[in-house]
Amino acid sequence: MIRRSGREWQDVGTPAGPKLFGGRRSARPYQPLDSASRYSYLRFVVKILVIGSGGREHALTWKLRQSPQAERIFCAPGNVGTGEVAENVTIPVSDLKALVSFAKENRVDLTVVGPDDPLAAGIIDLFTSEKLRAFGPNKSAARIESSKIFAKELMRTQKIPTAEARTFSNSSEALHYCERLEFPIVIKADGLALGKGVVIAADAAMARSTIDGMMNQGRFGDAGRRIVIEEFLHGTECSLHVLVDRRNYVLLESARDHKRALDADQGPNTGGMGAFSPASNWNSKLQSRFDSEIMRPLLRGLIQEDVTFQGLLYPGLMITSDGPRVLEFNCRFGDPETQTLLPRMKSDLLPLLEATIDGKIERCAIEWDTRAAVTVVLASGGYPGKYESGKSISGLDQAGKLEDVQIFHAGTKRDGSEVKTAGGRVLAVTALGSTLEAARARAYEAVSRIHFENCHYRRDIALNAIGANVT
Ligand code: ATP
Q1: Mean pLDDT value of segment 440-446
Q2: 198: CA distance to ligand 1 center in Å?
Q3: pLDDT at 43
Q4: Atom of ligand 1 nearest to the CA of 325
Q5: Distance of CA 101 to the CA centre of its chain
Q6: pLDDT of 45
Q7: Averaged over 22-38, what is the pLDDT?
């Protein structure tokens, strides 16, 4: 654990790691990368800083730890899981200046930003202005997630298939517009609203109260002052992840997540209660349409707008009877999709991130485990509403010993020899299997060994997709 003392950062007792190096990059000799990466860019070992504290950041840190080029990894602020594979640093993700200072003082070679908020706040611009390498889009490019209006406008000009939509900055006009629509409709706050800024309004009364709440009552602060009203799309959802280096991209494996809190997609939306990969509704035909109708026009549009997107783009799609439609663009790895995707990735993640920053992603191919992955999220009872923290967690060791099972921490903290709950989403349990059914059975077996008071998880993760081929 690294704590700040005066102006200096001090190591106060983490797993023994190599000493800090004097130069920007250490002098350990180049080691060949696995052949699948086909991108032998990294010639030296590197020090890495991962920013964030959720299951996504544990999965990123866990995967980067496996890279022969990763010498030392810090995670700010991290959680119990990241503390087992890296050195946690007590700096909040919102303290951009402290993060820059830490990276400078510790000669960090590469910073990987997990959550959307620091990206929207311009953390990449700040790091770049200090000549620090950082993975993620700059502030201008992060608008693709932080402003739904910006994303919609881009899609409109490039004719990217998405729901028909109109944007409003005046509530009376928005209310008037709703009178002409067939319900349900979808109302979206323009800015970031912790995944709660999208409301599916079943009727006019709900539309009225939603618009009033967002635009007049400031329910989401400035994020809801402008809104998008769009048509409701029917279909099944799919999460895609692409590494974009401005001009080119590589597609990661497909995944699906489960956003609602309760089985059978009931209850409120959450940050994600589970995921699986590959997505049962994705195929090569859709992939080719995704390339020609979505990704190529998008990259062209960004360049035309003079926006340099380098980082991870995660388009959320609705697969309709007319083909894929974009629901939203996210500009960072998904959570919990990352926890389900990275255990399937056989290639080294580090050279892929470096190639993205250097505009050389087209040279990369990613090798994947052909097995399926299922991730079940264990949450505190009451989440996404009010919940209690500080519950002792047991069974982590027994569950983690199961073959092809990986437990990613999210809201956890250490208390003496115990691990306790410290958030809404507590753990993400991922298992691999030759079929989705096998992966699912193993994931739930692991889940059954973990206990904490008021633990809540969905019993139907990947259930509807069982029987789908894993190819
Ligand atoms: P996230 O928390 O993933 O960032 P968000 O708040 O940015 O989500 P969206 O992903 O745009 O919002 O929408 C949230 C969910 O609302 C989608 O996963 C989808 O289930 C539903 N949704 C959004 N737009 C539409 C639409 N046009 N038609 C039908 N459902 C939609």
Answers
A1: 98
A2: 6
A3: 54
A4: 27
A5: 25
A6: 85
A7: 40
Best residue among 152, 167, 185, 198 to mutate for probing ligand 1's pocket (most ligand atoms within 8 Å of CB) is: 198
Report CA torsion sign: 31, 37, 38, 43.
Answer: negative
With beta carbons less than 8 A apart as the criterion, state whether 389 and 407 touch. Answer: no
Alpha carbons 162 and 151: distance in angstroms, whole number:
10
Residue 471, pLDDT > 60, answer: no
Ligand 1 atom having least distance to the Cα of 197: 6
- pLDDT, averaged across the chain: 91
Amino acid at 178: C
**Cα distance between residue 33 and residue 69, in whole Å:** 9
Closest to 388 measured CA to CA, from 417, 407, 411, 418: 411
pLDDT digits (tens, 9 = 90+) for 143-160: 999 999 999 999 999 999
Pairing of strands 110-113, 46-52: parallel
**Amino acid letter, residue 366:** I
Average pLDDT value for residue range 295-313 = 98
Q: How confident is the model at residue 21 (pLDDT cuts 50, 70, 90)?
A: very low
Q: 248 CB contacts (<8 Å, ≥6 apart)?
A: 299, 361, 362
Right CATH number for 2-139 from 2.60.120.10, 1.10.287.180, 3.40.50.20, 3.40.50.12780? 3.40.50.20
Q: What mean pLDDT comes out for the span 10-30? A: 34
- CATH hierarchy code of domain 164-231: 3.30.1490.20
Which of 337, 350, 360 has its CA nearest to residue 274? 337
Pocket, ligand 1, Cβ cutoff 6 A: 163, 186, 195, 197-198, 230, 232-233, 237, 259, 316, 327-328, 330
In this prediction the pTM is 0.90
* Dihedral angle, C-alpha 115, 120, 124, 126, nearest 10 °: -120
The structural domains of the chain, with segments of one domain joined by +, span 2-139, 164-231
Rounded to whole angstroms, the Cα distance separating 13 from 28 reads 24
d(CA 322, CA 406): 37
Q: Residue 195: its pLDDT value, please?
A: 74
User: 157-186, pLDDT tens digit by residue?
Assistant: 999 999 999 999 999 999 999 988 999 999
| pLDDT tens digits for range 57-74 | 999 999 999 999 999 999
